[in-house]
Amino acid sequence: MTQFKRRDILKGIGGLAGLSLMGAGSLRTALAQGMASDEAWKQASGTTIQFISENTPPTTAIAANLASFQELTGITVNITEMQLGALVQKVALDFGAGRSSFDVIYADPYQVLAPYHRGLVDLNRFINDDQQPVVPKGIEDFIPTQLAAAGRFEDRESLYTLPYDCPTMIWIYRRDLFEKYRDQMRQDLGFDPMPSDSTTWEQYYQIAEWFSNGNASEVKYGTGHQAQQYDSLMCDFSNVLFAYGGDYFANGQQVGLLGTDAPGACQLTSDAALEAARFYQNLLKVAHPGSTSWDWTGVANAFQNGEFAMMPEWHEFAGSLESSDLQGKIGYAPLPKGPARSSNLWGGTGIGINANASAEKQKAAWLFLVWATSPQTQLMGLKSTVGGGTPTRQSVYDMPEVKAASTPPTDMPNMLTADTMLTAWQDDYIGLRPKIAQWNEVDTVIFTELSKMLAGQMSPEETMQSAKQRIDRIVGA
Amino acid sequence: MMSPALFLLALITLVPFFSIIWMSFNDVSLMGGLAFEFSGLDNWQRVFTDPDIRSSWLISLVYFLATVGLEMVIGTVMALLVYSLTRGSNIIISLLLIPMFIAPVIVGLLGRFMLDPSHGLYAWMLNESGLFDGNILGSVGSAMVAVILMDVWEWTPLVALIVLAGLTSVPEDVLEAAEMDGARYGQKLLYIILPSISNILLVALLIRAMDAIRFFAIIFITTNGGPADSTKIIPIRLYDIAFRFFDLGYAAAVGITMLVFSIMVATAFTKLLKRQEKAS
C-alpha cells in the first residue's frame, strides 16, 4: 500500500541533504575547471531569475543544490514547480502577455516547444559566444536522439533547449517470478519467457495470459497498463502502434524527432495501425481490470502492491520501486518487438530560455542551463537522496562509478535501468510521438477514441477511422 | 459615496465580460502577444454543431439532475431526522457537516484512493459483497455513479443545513393543533412542514443547481472525463478547449453558453420564489 510519496516527503528536507552530497566548493571547482574562467560564471552576478518546471525528480534535486550554483555565479534562482498541465497554461499565458514571468522554461517538446518555439531563445547564440562558458563536453555529449527530440524544431540548426530529463517507457517485470516459473512457462508456452531482444508483443500477451490464469500465486494478473482516458493511454498504445509499424503521420520518426508545422494526413487507418489496435484491445482484455482507471502512477502503485507480474512503464519509476518491498526482485528490458521493431516511447524534456526576458536575465538563464545540464550536476542528481532523474549525457553513463551502479546493490537505483535505456534511446528503438503544435488536441482525440474502444463502444477499425477523421480536421489535412 | 466602488466593480466584471463576448467572435492567438483575428460566427456555429459539445451537455444534464435531485431528497430527509432529535442534535449536525468542509479536490483524491481496484476499501467491499466486481472508475456506467455519489456525499450536508434552518420557522402551534386533531406524521409533513419550508427548499435548490453547473474538481481528479468520455461534463470539456488546446475564441463561446444556461436556471428559480411569496 506504499504510495509514491517518498520524494514529496524528502523534498522538504532536500536542501541540506543535497548540499551534503556534493559541497558547493567542490562543484564549483569541477565546473570552473571543466568549462571556463570564474569571470565568465560571475558575469550575471546579482541577477535573479525564475525557473518554471514540472514537479519532477531532476528539479527536486536541482532545487536542493541551488546554493552551489548561487555561490558559483552569484545568481539567485527561484524555482516554481507544478504539474505539467498547469505549467503549460502559465507558460502559454506568459507568452500571450509578451512577458517573461519565467526566464528558464521547462519546455515539453510537444506542449511548449512545438507550439511556442518562437518564444524561446535559439541557444546557438550563447553556444557560439566566446564570452560565455562552454557547454562541458559540447552538445555532442547529449544523447543524440534526445538532443533532437527535446531541443530542435523542424530543422537541425536551431536549438531551443538542452535535454534535461528523459523518462522512457520500458518493460518492467517481476524478475523473481520470471525466474521461479521460467521452466514451467517455457514448457507451457513453448518459448523462453525471459525478456530478450527477440521477445515479441504476441509472446508478452501469452505471458500475461499465463499469469492471469492463476499459474502463479504471487500475483493475480500478468500485466497492468496505464490505460486511463488520459495522456498515459496514448503513451501505452503508442509503444504497440510503432512496434507494429504504424504511426500517427507519414514519416513519423522524423515528425517525432524534429517536428513539423504540417504533418499531413493521419495514418491511423493503415493496415499496421489497425493490427496494432486489434492487438492492444486484446491485450487489455487479459490485463488487470484496473488498468482502465490507472495512469502511470496508478499502475506503478498496483505493480508495487503485487497485483501483476509486468507492465510497460516509465523507467524513472525504478527509483521508487527499488525502494519498496520489491527491491532486488525487478527486471528491466526494452519493450517487446512487433512485426516492425521494438518501440520505447520517450517522454523527455529540455530547458530553454524565454525570449521575452531581458538580455541580462537571458545571460543568467544560460549559465543556469549549462550548470543544470552539466555532467557534474547530473551525477549529483543521480546520487541525490531527494530526487534526481537519469542523465541525458553519454559521458555520465561512461563514468566508472555510474557504470558500477548499474548492477545491484546500488545507491543509484535508476541506474539499474542503464543498459536497457542506452538501448531504448537508439534510433531503432526510441518511440517518438508527433512533435506538432496541435499535439494536445490530437493527443486528446487519440486517448478518447482508444478509451471508447477499450470500453467496448467501438471496434478497432471504427476507432482508428474516427481518430483519423478528427485528427485530419485538427491538423487541416 | 458609492460611485468609486461601483465603478471599480463595473471595471472588474464588465470589462472581462465584454472581452469574452468579443473573443467568441475571434480566433485568439497567444504567441507573440495576445492577438485577435475576427472570425465572425465561426465559433458560435461550432458550439451548436459540435457533437462533442452536444454529448457533454447531455452528460451534464444527467449529472445535474442526479446530483441536485439526490442532494435535495437526502438533505431534506437528514434535516427532518435531525430536527426530530430531542438530544444530541448539535453533535450530529457537526458530524454531518464535515464533508462540506473538505476541498472538492481532496474528495476526488479520497474517492480515487477508496475506489482503486488494487487497494481501495470501497472497491474491495463491493467486490467481496458480490455487488460489483468491475473497475468502478474505469467502467462507463459505474464511473458516472461514483462521481455523482462523491458530489452527493460532499454537498448533501449543505442542503440539510439550509433545510434545518428553514424548519425552525415551521409554526409550532399549527403542528400542535394538527397533532391534537389526530394528523399522522406523513400528513403533517405534506400539508404543514413542506409548504412552510418551500421557499427555503427553493433557495437550497438554487444554490446547489448553480454549483452543479460549474462542477469540475472531483471529475477532473478521478476520471478526467473518462472512460470513453462518459463523465465529460461541459466544464471539463471547456477546460480542455481553453487550457489544453488554447482555442480561446471557441472556449469563450462555450463559456458564454454555460453562463446563459446558469442565468436561465437562476431566473426560473427566482420566478418560482416570487410566485411562492405571492401565494403565501
UniProtKB/TrEMBL annotation, chain B:
One of its GO terms (cellular component) is plasma membrane. It is a multi-pass membrane protein. The chain crosses the membrane at residues 57-83, 95-115, 135-168, 189-207, 248-269. Keywords: Membrane, Transmembrane, Transmembrane helix, Transport. It holds the Pfam family BPD_transp_1. InterPro entries: MetI-like, MetI-like_sf, Sugar_ABC_transporter. One of its GO terms (biological process) is transmembrane transport. It is found in: Cell membrane. It comes from the Bacteria. CDD domains: TM_PBP2 (cd06261). Residues 57-269 form the ABC transmembrane type-1 domain. Belongs to the binding-protein-dependent transport system permease family. This is Carbohydrate ABC transporter membrane protein 1, CUT1 family. It comes from Chromohalobacter israelensis (strain ATCC BAA-138 / DSM 3043 / CIP 106854 / NCIMB 13768 / 1H11).
